[in-house]
Amino acid sequence: MRPSDCGADFSIFTHLTRRERLLLFDLARGLDDGATIVEIGSYLGASTTFLAAGARRGGGRVHAVDTWTNIGMSEGPRDTYEEFLTNIRQLRDLIVPLRGRSTEMAPQVQAPIDLLFIDGDHRYDAVAEDLEIWLPKVRKNGVVVFHDYGWAEGIQMAVREFILPLQVNHGHREDSIYWTRIDPTRSKVRSEYPTASVIIPTCDRPSYLRDAIESVSNQEFSPSEYEIVIVDNRPTGEARAIVRDLEKSHGRSIVFVEEPRPGLHNARHTGAMAATGRILVYIDDDIFAPRHWLARILEPFADPAVAIVGSKVLPHWEKTPPTWVTQLPPYYLSLLDLGPDDRELHWPEGVHGCNMAVRFSAFYEIGGFNPDGLPDKGHIWWRGDGETGLHKKLYDVGYKVIYTPHAPIRHRISHTRMQREYFNWRAFSQGISDSYSKIRRRTKRHTSSVRMVQHGASCLLRAGKFVLSAAFNREETPKRRAAAWYWYGRGRHQLRTALRPSLLEYIVRDSYLRDSESRSRIQRETPSHPPETVADRPARRAAYG
To answer: Which domain holds residue 450?
Structure first.
């Protein structure tokens, strides 16, 4: 059923986008019968009608709280109450106007709140005051929604202070809306968990894994302050045996979980949900870390605005590389060196996921990684922009990303990667990732299939040009062939997405961190009850489907 069929009015002036209004309708429609909805900041009633239209079928009611004096609005002060009443007339029986300051109106709502929508004064003090009064009224698993989260620092600060410790699933985004489910009874007990969790996804590289665990186990950092989490992304039993052997030799427990669904992002998410550290430190299974590495990469987190810290990724060549490797971008081998000085990065700068620490609360707030590398080439079209997408989401809501040169790791470069075929495939994959990023950005502006077909055709044309130029320039043949594969992958992905609605739906998903896996363990403040472990959930063993 369409919102307009239920009385919602798209013609009412509002600062909400069309997608944001539809989200409010869907959230209200998904509530139980007789739901109580509270909206703080109703203005002219556009959002009010969408909430009421969504709740109409179940007989819910919307308590609309506002002064209707328009103070602080960009349009200037004026009395808008009569205009509000006119705009909501079709749904008047479902809407209870409460005229006054939100803190003064709170006693008039006695029933537990199923959905609380905050769109009033965006200053931190005002949002905090609203939340202190209204949050205790929200029922367990109730929905809390904020508008203008994408730019209003006061709202972002309030979400991080008041909402993250109470979340029962990760945050969701739709344009400038942030929403989640909470349990207001959660106690804000300071976490007694370790400072950091070093998470190592692994896939069919047992000998490498042993060396990586050895180097991480020998850190100049108190063993009680960090844990090691191994995520086997292609379970065969071999990785588990190595972990058990190293537990005995090092005399410490290592968390081991299996993630049978292919995809680096799946393994990273499973690691995050199994971890208990306040900082998640991601590395690959083919690295060597010096003894000071962990202490150095955690230092910048003293600043609470820092969400990501990364450092150098230097090569450990297993075979002397051919000279033509220098023609290709270092990130094709996950290498990174941004110089000898600490510095704050800015979009589109970033660090690599094989040597990257991320604050858990920030990770949870923005919904984790986008899809990343898939070991099965048959699923290549379902890859995304991985840690790049994570960076973008964190930049968008005001977090800092820090590069420090003082926590380098050595990344093994096997002889199998020194083949031109590897670099061609790596370029092809990068083309798919960049196509994914472009589609996500453009879809915000309602990209059509026609535009994707046009862009895909343009990419394929560029690929053909690089193929021809490679034939006439032998010195730069590896570089030009890799470029041809890049544009070929990008073009194919655009065309495939234009023709497959299921792929487009997957690409524009707001988060790939499944609510059913989330443990609601927040970095700064933690529930007093012991956390559920991933190993305790048989459903997590479901085969990829």
So the answer is: 425-507
- Which one of 158, 182, 206 terminates a domain? 182
Asked whether residue 458 is assigned to any structural domain, the reply reads yes
* Pairing mode of beta strands 226-232, 138-146: unpaired
Write the CATH number for 132: 3.40.50.150
Residue pLDDT, tens place only, 8-37 = 889 999 999 999 999 999 999 999 999 999
pLDDT tens digit sequence for 406-443: 999 999 999 889 999 999 999 999 999 999 999 998 76
Q: What is the dihedral of CA 167, 172, 177, 178, to 10 degrees?
A: 20
Rounded-to-integer distance, Cα 205 and Cα 224, Å:
28
For residues 119 and 44, the answer to whether their CB atoms sit within 8 Å is no
User: Which residues lie closer than 8 Å to 420 by C-beta, 6 or more apart?
Assistant: 324, 478, 481
The CB-side HSE value for 273 (13 A sphere, CA atoms) comes to 30
Number of domains in the chain: 3
Total residues found in the chain within this entry:
545
Choose one of 374, 397, 418: the last residue of a domain.
418
The per-residue pLDDT for range 208-250, each reduced to its tens digit, is 999 999 999 999 999 999 999 999 999 988 999 999 999 999 8
CA–CA gap between residue 401 and residue 394 (Å, rounded): 8
pLDDT value, residue 447: 62
Contact 400, 391 (CB under 8 A): no
- Please indicate, yes or no, whether residues 463 and 356 belong to a single structural domain of this protein: no
DSSP labels, 325-362: GGGS-GGGGT-B---SS-EEE-TT----TTEEEEEHHH
Q: What is the pTM of this model?
A: 0.87
